[in-house]
Structures are given as structure tokens and as C-alpha cells.
Amino acid sequence: MSRTVIDLDDEALEAAARELGTSTKRDTINTALREVTARYRRLRALDEARELVAEGALDIDLLLDKSAYRPTSAGAADDDRDTGAHE
Fold this sequence. Notes:
Number of helices: 4
Helix content: 55-70%
Order of helices and strands: HHHH
Oligomer: single chain
Protein name: Antitoxin
Distance between the termini: 46 Å
Pfam families: VapB_antitoxin
């Protein structure tokens, strides 16, 4: 981790700390940097998915059809759980 001396907007820092639930300047800045990075990665992924849909390479309706996820049968959820009762 590097150490840097910078001037900060105290009001913006306080507002960010409230939104992020952080209590120190260090935590606020590090959390904000991570969240901004993650947000832009998600936006890029969304743009890429939109391009694939526009090109016909991705069927968004199929992805959103939850009935096509996994077929389930009655009691299947109970059979798949490991409750530790067999030990």
C-alpha cells in the first residue's frame, strides 16, 4: 500500500463515509475506490452484453426465462441438502 498526501474535500469525504458506512478517511477512500472500480466493470459488462444482444449472439429472453433454469421435482430440494444427519 502506498502513502500519498492529498487535499480532500471534507464535505464530500463526510458524505461518502455516511453513504458507505465507513468511519475513517482511509476506509472511506479505499472503499470508494473499490466500489467505483466495480461499478465501471459492471457497466462495461452490461455494454458488452447489449452488444451481443444487438448482434444476435445472446438471447436475453432465454436468460430471463427462469422456468428454463433447472427443472425441479417435488422433494428435490430436500434430497440435495446436506443436513449432517447422516454423520
